[in-house]
């Protein structure tokens, strides 16, 4: 019997196939989703993983048997599924394991309007109901079961994005795109390759859930190496790298150097504030402090939140924010039902670059005011005790400010800062440091790491 606690995470479902879950489990989850949420219209979509075909079909058929009208959208990026959920006010189930290796698959669930579901807002109940079904409790069946109908939404999705950002008047740009054999190979030609002045140089556009070239996780520097080399070789203006389900987008400049997600957040925030003066921008506490500075300088209100999409989306809805950005290259838009879309963020960057004759490195230079360490992980058995010890030490530093919105954040008297957060799933502490200079960043980083690892 599968142990659902192992695959049902805080915000989604994810595990090894068939080791941890299979089509029988997917069917139980489909029936449970309808039973718990009461949703009668659901869009089901999947990424390029071979296991997704059977898993998505089993979920869809069980949901239809429980009485829900199910639309099979077929191959989609996660943000395309969010588009369908938002545009047609339907619940959604996206079968993907994002950047995880080929043996994994998962489900990202949402309510109509792309509203997220977490353990606290229904996912735990869905898990428990599915467990009951797997243990022999009859799955709910409607008096008149519905059918599963197929429909493709790719053109509508592309049209909607083009209606939000006008890239048609940009100067001609050579754009290298590394799809990592993920869903960007499906969506980029439809969005960036249509009615734009861009020359798209494709890399790894063949949909292949085995990821034969590199992991579809651009957050890892090793997975950007091929893109960086191709940008330099071709003299491209910009490089874009998407993760497996194409909801995150990473950017490299014309030199092949990574552009930090914080800089992208600041650039997009500036564009949003030009269109929506005085609006609210959400940023998570790992994002560079240049983001709230730039938001404030452009007349906006910057609101800081915890790391994680459910926190970002909740705060955006609470404050009617127009945009939110995370250090992990998730970008959220009010015009996209507060959901995250890497494609739309990429279009804003391309539009900004296309309005100027500057190379990208110069365009974004003003957004990168500080030096960041990146996330550094340390294996620690007693995460809470270690954080408490470090908090006690820095509480004695004159002028230091401490807060525990998410882990421990310490702002030093000189304005430099670090955040230390425990992993939710592993015995790790995650350290992020930012300072005015490389030397000061290294000094503060090593000082904190010494205390973590002693």
From TrEMBL:
- What's the family? Belongs to the phosphohexose mutase family.
- Molecular function as annotated in GO: intramolecular phosphotransferase activity; metal ion binding
The name on file for this protein is Phosphomannomutase
- Report domain Alpha-D-phosphohexomutase alpha/beta/alpha positions: 7-127, 156-256, 263-367
Q: Which Pfam families match?
A: PGM_PMM_I (PF02878), PGM_PMM_II (PF02879), PGM_PMM_III (PF02880), PGM_PMM_IV (PF00408)
Annotated ranges, domain Alpha-D-phosphohexomutase C-terminal: 375-450
Q: Does the keyword Acyltransferase apply?
A: no
Which positions carry the signal peptide feature in this UniProt record?
A: none
Which cofactors are required for activity? Mg(2+)
Gene Ontology annotations of biological process type? carbohydrate metabolic process
Q: Which UniProt keywords apply?
A: Isomerase, Magnesium, Metal-binding, Phosphoprotein
Keyword set includes Disulfide bond: no
